[in-house]
Amino acid sequence: MKPFWFAVFGGFAINVLRLADLANTPRTERPETFSDPIYLLQFFVLPFIGGGLAYAYHVSGTILSPILAVNIGASAPLIFKNFASALPPFGPRKIG
Description:
about 0% strand
């Protein structure tokens, strides 16, 4: 279960770095963060998805060092977001 928590830490570390990056952006140009439910959802859920991926590695027999689990947790949310952005749009398509 330790790899799960190390991976969750890695995911939250990436989120904190994203917030720190916003500190350099003028307040008028900043996107909504904690007042937006979608932002809150991704801020708290994506690190746990990374933890779930590290846990899946762990139960499949892969030996994860703490630094590898942190790496998986930090990169998994970014990978899943890229997968989601590559999906074709839903709904009816315009013809013509």
